[in-house]
Write a structure and sequence with these properties.
Elements (H helix, E strand, L loop, with lengths): L1 H27 L4 H24 L6 H78 L3 H52 L1 H7 L8 H88 L1
Length: 300
């Protein structure tokens, strides 16, 4: 049972590796999409058949065929691994590119909001300065003339104050509108950052704070580890399944031969017992005939 399970897993793993590899090869040779799919499919099928045939016929096939098939299988495994690496790298690059584009848009919004907030703060500073001028005039005088002068200054500032207040109100509305537009983009960036969170934790096993370049190296090494155990494991499981099935066939033949020998021995033993019984029966009949002849002689 375990041999057939190993064969099933080997075929499934090889099929998935072939799928990733073919898609990766189509990304490398994008100008010939369908020809690459046909070529990759046939090469993957040939690799599986070659691995199984070479193992089963190693002792009977000529040396040239054996060694050529071993080299061909190794090269095909490298091609499959290369295609798988290309597919996984392409998926990561597409994700990183989409995140970078959205992050750039968020950065533009942040810059505009920052600029508007600086303008708002500058206008508020001017209003505060206007108030300080009026307060200074009020504090320096103790009569009604000082109050009138302060009121006059306040009136001269009124037009500029109104303009600054209207500008502040308009800029605040613009900041609110930009924040609303930025919100979906920021949520998308956070969602993608949550998706790449595990790889960030893996990177931080080696450094305290992983930057973007170290994250890229970590992703690359994770892909290399996946590729290392992907297609080679499928081929080795296929060989292991063939080995197990050959051994099981030998055991079944031995058991069948042993059972047949036991049956033959039983038949021989039964035949011997039958012959012995026939001999005993023949002796008993001869003895009985002799006794009957003696009785007849005595009576006569």
């Amino acid at each position: 049972m375990i041999n057939y399970l190993a064969l099933l897993v080997a075929v499934g793993l090889s099929s998935v590796a072939a799928y990733f590899s073919i898609l990766g090869l189509t990304a490398i040779f994008a100008a010939s999409y369908w020809p690459v799919i046909i070529m990759g499919s046939m090469l993957e099928a040939a690799k599986v058949v070659a691995a199984s045939w070479t193992f089963r016929n190693w002792n009977h096939a000529p040396a040239f065929i054996r060694y050529y098939l071993v080299v061909a299988i190794a090269v095909l495994m490298m091609i499959t691994s290369m295609g798988t690496f290309g597919y996984l790298s392409k998926a990561h690059i597409e994700q990183s590119t989409s995140v970078s584009d959205v992050a750039a848009q968020v950065a533009v919004y942040d810059e505009r909001i920052k600029s508007l907030n600086e303008t708002i703060n500058a206008n508020r500073t001017l209003l505060k300065q206007f108030d300080e001028v009026v307060d200074q005039v009020m504090s320096r005088s103790t009569d009604s003339k000082g109050a009138e002068r302060a009121l006059q200054i306040r009136k001269t500032q009124q037009k500029e104050r109104s303009r600054l207040m209207e500008e502040i109100s308009s800029l605040q509305k613009e900041v609110g509108r930009l924040n609303v537009e930025k919100s979906p983009l920021a949520s998308q960036v956070k969602r993608v950052e949550a998706e790449v969170g595990p790889i960030k934790y893996i990177a931080e096993l080696f450094v305290d704070r992983a930057d973007d370049s170290f994250l890229e190296k970590t992703v690359r090494w994770v892909i290399i580890m996946i590729v290392t155990v992907f297609d080679p494991l499928a081929v080795l499981l296929l060989i292991a399944a063939n080995m197990g099935m050959i051994r099981q066939n030998r055991i079944n033949k031995m058991n069948n031969t042993r059972t047949a020998n036991i049956e033959v021995n039983k038949d021989i033993a039964a035949e011997k017992r039958f012959k012995k019984l026939q001999e005993l029966t023949g002796k008993a009949n001869r003895s009985k005939v002799t006794i009957d002849k003696n009785k007849i002689r005595k009576m006569t």
